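Data deposition worksheet. Section B asks for the primary sequence of the deposited chain exactly as it was used as input, without tags or linkers unless they were present during the calculation. Section C holds the resulting structure in C-alpha cell form. Section D is free text for depositor observations; keep each observation to a single sentence. Incomplete worksheets are returned to the depositor.
Section A, Depositor: J.P.
Section B:
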Amino acid sequence: MTTKSLDAKFNSWANGETLHLFHSEVLFIKGMLVTSIYVVVKGSILIFASDSKRILRLVGPHQILGINEVLNGAKWKGIGVAQGHVELVAFSNVSLLSVIDKIPKEHKNLLEELLLSELDGTKQI
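Section C:
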C-alpha cells in the first residue's frame, strides 16, 4: 500500500471513529504526515524503525499515539503495525488543534512545557 493510499484510508476516520486493525496490518509508515491521533482501546501497535528490525515503541491499551507529532506538525518516524486484533479511536489533528486554541493561555503554556520536556527526554508524560 502506498503512502497516498494509507493517507486516504486513515484521514477518512478522524472524529472519534473506531478503527479495527487485523494482526500485522499497517497503520502508518515513516514519512507519512500525522493527521490524526489514536487512542488504543484493545491490542497494541508496534512501532518499528524504518529498517523494520528494531522496535522503537509499543503502544498499548489506554495510550495515545500521535499527539506529539500532531502538535509539532511532524511526520511518522517509524512504521506502525498492529500486534494482534487492535481497536483504536481516531481524532483528527484539526479537531485537536481547535480544542487547544480554546483552552486558557496558562493551560497552553503547561502543555507546551510538558511537550518540550518529553522531546528533550527530561520527563515522561
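Section D:
The mean pLDDT is 80.
The CA atoms of residues 47 and 53 lie 10 Å apart.
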